[in-house]
C-alpha cells in the first residue's frame, strides 16, 4: 500500500514537472538575439497613399558589448512601406534577419500631414499591439520624422530613449501636454474634451524642441498654438512648475522703474500652479446652448523671485504690484491659448466636459454641435499670483553711487 | 465522498473566506469588470453594490436552507425537499452549473493569456495545464486547497492595494464625475452581471458541512465576497480615474492598462506578468473549488464511492467545453454580457428560491420537530 502511494506521488510529481515545461513559454518564446528592438518609429503618408515608416532599431552589439571598443552606432535606421501600418511593419520584417519587437518602443513621431488626415490608424495599431508600453510618447512633426531621428544623436547615443526621458521631465514641469499613448487615446475618445499633442522640431545646435501644441478634433490635427498661445495652452494643464519668466522693473511701480535701469528686470520662477475651469448656467435660455452658460478659468501661481536687479523687493508695497503684473501676464497667455483653440475649432481644455459633468441633460442637447458652437461660450479668465519666496538674502544689493551720478 | 469521511472543521472560517474571495473575484476582475465599465461607465461601483445586495439575498436563502438541513450540502438537500424524482436533477444541475462556470472561466483565462502573453501557444494548452493543476489540487482534498487559498489570499489582496497605490499619481478624479450621468438604469441593469458572478458563491452550500459552524460559514462568505467586491470596485474606479470611462471600458481587462502604466522610476515597470500570476492563482483556486464541488455532488448523485474517480473525466469535459462553445473572445464577451446573468441567476437565485419556498411550505409551522421532519 505504501509502495503504491509512493509510486502515485512520484508519478504526480513527474507529471507536475512535465506540466511545468509548458509554463516556460516555449510556445511563444523569443531569444533576445533573435529580436530587433524598435526604439522609435516615424509614421507618414507616402506619395502613393501608402504608409511610410522609419524605424530606429537598437544595435545590441554596439549597445551592450562590454570590453569591446564600440565603433558602430548603437541604433540603425530603416524604412518600410505598405498600405497599412501592419503591412509596412511586415515589409521590414520580411527583409530583416530578426523579427521586430515593440517592447522597448519609446517614441512615435507622426508627420503633420498624416496627423491632419487622422491619427486613428496609428493609435489603434499601437494600442492594440500586445507588446506595446502605454508610456510610449507620441509627437507630431512638421518635418519628415526621419529628419527628427537623424538630428537626435546630438542628445544621446540612443536617441529615442533620450527623447522620451526629456519629454518625461518636461511633462512633470507642465511644459508639455501628456504625450503618452494611453492618455492621448483617452482624450480622443473622451466626451466634451478634445486631445492635444505636442509638436517636435529640430532646434539649433542639433537638439530638439517642442515648440507648439497641436489641437485635435476627434483624431485629426486641426490647429497649432505657438509662443504665448502655447504658453496659455500649457496653463490649462494646471501643472506648470519651475518655469521662469521676467518682468520689467516698471511692473512694480514708478519707484522701481526709476531705480531699475534697462535691461534690469525681475526674474521670477513658478514654484507651483493650478488652473481650474468652472461653468454655470447664466440663467437665460434652456441650457441647451453654449450661450446659456458662463465659464471662468481661474489660474493660481506661487512665484519665487530669483533675481531683482530693480532692487525694490525689501519694501512691501512692491509685492502686490509685481503680483498683479505677473497675473496679467498669465491672463494674457491663457486668453491667447483660448483664442488659438477657438480658431482651430477644438475644445482641448474641457469646457464641454465641465458642462457635461454639471448638467448631463443639457450637454446631450449641445454635444453634437459643440465643436462648431463652443466659441459662443462666454469665458472669463482670472489669474492670481503670489510671491512666496524671495531667496535667502534679506535685502537687494546696494550699489555705491558713482561720482556724479 | 461519503458521510464518514466528511468532518466538520475540515476548513476554518479564514480558509472559507479565502475560497469565497477567489471564487467570486475570478473571472470578474479579469474581463467582466471591463464589460461592467463599458455598460455602466463611472457608475460601475453602483452595479457592484447591486450585485452584492443580490448576492446577500441569495446567501440569506442558503443560510436558512443550511440551517434547516444541517449536515447536508446543497447538492444533497434538494432530494430531501423535492423528493427523489425532482430533487435529483436539481442537485445534478447545481453540480453541472459549477463545472460549467469553471469551464467558461478557464477558457476565458486561456484565451486571454494567449491574446496578451502567449500568442503562439494554443489556448487549449494553457487550459490543459491549469486544469491538470486543479485536478491534482482537488484530488488532494478540500483541506489542501483551502490551506493554499488561505496562504495566497492576503498576498492577493495586498497586491491589488499596492497596485492602486502605485497607480494613484496617474489618477484624475474628475473622470469619476458626473455621478448618474446616464441615470440609474444602466448601472442597475449592469448589476445583474456582478450579481450572477458573485452568485457562484452558492458553492458555499456545498462546503457548509465541512465547516460545521453555520453562522461562521455565512460570516466567512460575507467577508470573502466583500473583499472581492472591494478589489473589483477599486480596480474599476482606478481604471476610470486614470483613463476615463470610455477608454477603461475599451480595454480587454481593466487591470492590464493599469499595470502597464505603473512606473516607479526605471526600477519598477511593466508589472503585467505579476498580475498574470495573480489571475492564474485566482483561477486555480476557483476552478479547484468548483470542480471539487461538482465532483462530490455528481459522485453522490450517481452513487460513485469516491469523488476522485470523477475528477479526471470531469476536467476533460471542463477543458473541452470552452473551445466547443466559444469561437473567440467576442463570443465569450457576448456570453458574459447577454446570456450569463440570466442563465446563472436562474440557478443561483431561481433554483435556490424554489428550494426555499418548497422547504418552507413543507416545513411544519408549529411544534419543535420541524428539522427532524424534513431535515437531518
Description:
The complex is a heterodimer of chains A (405) and B (376). Chain A has 405 residues and is α/β, with parallel strands linked by helices. Helices cover 35% and strands 28% of the residues of chain A. Chain A is built from 14 helices and 14 strands. Chain A has helices at residues 2-22, 60-64, 85-95, 112-117, 120-128, 145-151, 159-172, 181-188, 228-237, 254-259, 318-344, 351-358, 360-366, 370-373, and strands spanning 35-45, 51-58, 75-82, 99-101, 107-111, 137-141, 196-203, 207-209, 213-217, 220-225, 243-248, 265-281, 293-308, 379-389. In chain A, the strands form two sheets. In chain A, strands 1, 2, 3, 4, 5, 6, 7, 8, 9 and 10 form a ten-stranded mixed sheet that branches. Chain A has a four-stranded mixed sheet with strand order 11-12-13-14. In chain A, a hairpin with a 2-residue loop joins strand 9 and strand 10. The longest helix of chain A is centred in the last third of the chain and has 27 residues, at 318-344. The termini of chain A are far apart. Chain B has 376 residues and is mainly α. Helices cover 77% and strands 1% of the residues of chain B. Chain B has 15 helices and two strands. In chain B, strands 1-2 form a two-stranded antiparallel ribbon. In chain B, strand 1 and strand 2 form a beta hairpin. The model of chain B is unreliable at 1-5 and 367-376 (pLDDT under 50). At the A-B interface, helix 1, helix 8 and helix 12 of A face helix 5, helix 10 and helix 11 of B.
Amino acid at each position: 500500500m505504501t509502495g503504491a502511494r509512493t509510486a502515485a506521488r512520484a508519478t504526480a510529481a513527474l507529471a507536475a514537472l512535465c506540466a511545468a515545461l509548458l509554463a516556460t513559454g516555449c510556445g511563444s518564446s523569443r531569444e533576445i538575439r533573435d529580436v530587433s528592438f524598435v526604439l522609435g518609429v516615424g509614421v507618414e503618408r507616402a506619395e502613393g497613399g501608402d504608409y511610410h515608416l522609419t524605424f530606429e532599431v537598437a544595435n545590441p552589439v554596439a549597445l551592450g558589448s562590454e570590453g569591446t571598443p564600440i565603433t558602430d552606432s548603437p541604433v540603425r535606421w530603416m524604412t518600410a512601406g505598405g498600405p497599412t501600418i501592419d503591412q509596412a511593419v511586415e515589409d521590414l520584417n520580411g527583409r530583416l534577419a530578426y523579427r521586430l519587437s515593440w517592447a522597448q518602443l519609446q517614441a512615435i513621431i507622426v508627420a503633420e500631414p498624416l496627423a491632419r488626415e487622422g491619427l486613428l490608424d496609428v493609435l489603434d495599431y499601437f494600442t492594440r499591439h500586445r507588446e506595446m508600453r502605454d508610456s510610449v510618447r507620441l509627437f507630431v512633426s512638421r518635418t519628415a520624422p526621419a529628419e527628427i531621428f537623424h538630428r537626435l544623436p546630438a542628445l544621446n547615443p540612443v536617441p529615442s530613449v533620450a527623447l522620451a526621458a526629456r519629454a518625461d521631465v518636461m511633462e512633470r514641469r507642465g511644459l508639455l501636454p501628456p504625450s503618452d499613448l494611453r492618455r492621448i487615446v483617452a482624450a480622443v475618445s473622451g466626451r466634451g474634451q478634445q486631445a492635444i499633442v505636442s509638436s517636435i522640431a529640430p532646434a539649433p545646435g542639433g537638439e530638439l524642441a517642442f515648440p507648439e501644441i497641436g489641437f485635435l478634433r476627434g483624431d485629426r490635427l486641426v490647429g497649432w498654438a505657438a509662443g504665448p498661445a502655447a504658453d496659455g495652452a500649457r496653463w490649462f494643464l494646471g501643472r506648470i512648475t519651475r518655469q521662469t519668466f521676467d518682468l520689467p522693473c516698471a511692473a512694480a511701480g514708478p519707484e522701481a522703474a526709476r531705480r531699475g535701469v534697462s535691461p534690469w528686470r525681475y526674474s521670477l520662477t513658478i514654484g507651483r500652479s493650478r488652473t481650474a475651469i468652472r461653468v454655470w448656467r447664466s440663467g437665460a435660455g434652456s441650457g441647451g446652448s453654449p450661450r446659456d452658460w458662463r465659464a471662468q478659468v481661474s489660474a493660481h501661481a506661487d512665484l519665487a523671485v530669483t533675481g531683482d536687479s530693480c532692487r525694490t523687493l525689501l519694501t512691501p508695497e512692491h509685492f502686490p504690484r509685481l503680483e498683479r503684473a505677473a497675473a496679467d501676464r498669465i491672463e494674457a497667455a491663457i486668453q491667447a491659448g483660448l483664442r488659438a483653440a477657438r480658431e482651430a475649432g477644438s475644445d482641448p481644455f474641457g469646457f464641454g466636459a465641465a458642462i457635461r459633468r454639471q448638467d448631463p441633460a443639457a450637454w446631450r442637447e449641445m454635444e453634437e454641435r459643440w465643436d462648431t458652437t463652443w466659441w459662443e461660450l462666454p469665458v472669463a479668465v482670472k489669474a492670481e499670483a503670489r510671491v512666496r519666496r524671495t531667496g535667502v538674502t534679506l535685502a537687494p544689493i546696494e550699489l555705491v553711487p558713482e561720482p556724479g551720478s | 465522498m461519503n458521510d464518514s469521511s466528511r468532518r466538520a472543521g475540515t476548513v476554518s472560517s479564514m480558509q472559507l473566506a479565502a475560497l469565497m474571495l477567489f471564487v467570486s473575484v475570478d473571472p470578474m476582475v479579469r474581463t467582466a469588470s471591463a464589460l461592467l465599465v463599458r455598460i455602466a461607465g463611472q457608475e460601475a461601483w453602483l452595479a457592484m453594490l447591486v450585485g452584492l445586495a443580490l448576492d446577500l439575498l441569495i446567501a440569506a436563502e442558503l443560510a436558512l436552507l443550511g440551517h434547516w438541513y444541517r449536515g447536508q450540502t446543497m447538492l444533497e438537500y434538494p432530494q430531501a425537499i423535492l423528493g427523489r424524482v425532482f430533487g435529483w436533477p436539481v442537485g445534478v444541475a447545481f453540480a453541472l452549473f459549477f463545472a460549467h462556470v469553471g469551464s467558461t472561466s478557464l477558457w476565458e483565462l486561456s484565451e486571454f493569456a494567449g491574446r496578451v502573453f502567449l500568442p503562439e501557444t494554443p489556448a487549449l494548452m494553457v487550459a490543459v495545464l491549469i486544469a491538470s493543476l486543479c485536478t491534482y489540487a482537488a484530488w488532494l482534498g478540500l483541506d489542501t486547497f483551502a490551506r493554499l487559498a488561505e496562504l495566497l489570499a492576503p498576498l492577493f489582496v495586498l497586491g491589488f492595494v499596492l497596485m492602486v497605490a502605485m497607480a494613484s499619481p496617474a489618477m484624475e478624479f474628475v473622470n469619476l464625475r458626473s455621478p448618474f450621468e446616464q441615470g440609474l438604469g444602466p448601472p442597475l441593469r449592469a448589476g445583474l452581471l456582478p450579481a450572477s458572478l458573485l452568485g457562484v458563491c452558492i458553492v458555499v452550500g456545498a462546503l457548509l458541512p465541512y465547516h460545521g459552524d453555520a453562522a461562521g460559514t455565512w460570516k466567512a462568505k460575507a467577508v470573502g465576497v466583500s473583499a472581492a467586491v472591494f478589489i473589483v470596485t477599486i480596480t474599476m474606479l482606478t481604471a476610470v480615474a486614470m483613463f476615463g470611462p470610455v477608454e477603461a471600458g475599451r480595454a480587454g481587462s481593466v487591470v492590464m492598462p493599469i499595470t502597464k502604466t505603473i512606473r516607479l522610476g526605471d526600477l519598477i515597470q511593466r508589472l503585467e506578468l505579476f498580475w498574470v500570476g495573480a489571475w492564474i492563482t485566482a483561477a486555480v483556486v476557483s476552478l479547484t473549488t468548483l470542480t471539487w464541488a461538482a465532483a462530490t455532488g455528481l459522485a453522490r448523485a450517481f452513487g460513485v464511492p469516491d469523488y476522485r474517480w470523477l475528477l479526471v473525466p470531469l476536467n476533460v469535459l471542463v477543458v473541452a467545453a470552452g473551445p466547443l462553445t466559444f469561437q473567440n473572445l467576442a463570443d465569450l464577451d457576448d456570453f458574459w454580457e447577454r446570456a450569463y446573468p440570466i442563465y446563472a441567476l436562474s440557478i443561483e437565485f431561481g433554483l435556490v428560491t424554489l428550494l426555499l419556498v418548497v422547504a418552507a411550505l413543507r416545513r411544519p409551522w408549529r411544534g419543535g420537530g420541524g428539522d427532524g421532519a424534513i431535515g437531518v
